[in-house]
Write a structure and sequence with these properties.
two-stranded antiparallel sheet
Amino acid sequence: MQALSCSAPAPFRLPSPPDVSLVLEHHHHFVINGRAHPLAAVVCSADDLASQARASAGGEGNSTLAGQALRGLYLTDSAVVGFFEEATLAIENRDQIR
């Protein structure tokens, strides 16, 4: 997603609100001004989950970084573990959900 949003020459980039651009540019480096940006941290985690599910365009997920992103939102360790457990279950059962 980052490659699609940032690497295209300016005339070919899709216009987007500043917050969307900020999140796309920082979802692998979600700490901005010393704090985890909430949406960038969530997108970082979603990127990792999509990669695990083999549903991402770039396969660039990083579970360690995704965990750090969620912890940067001051979630407890048990909440982070629960998030990944529920996401893993959803990934494993995605064919039944469709």
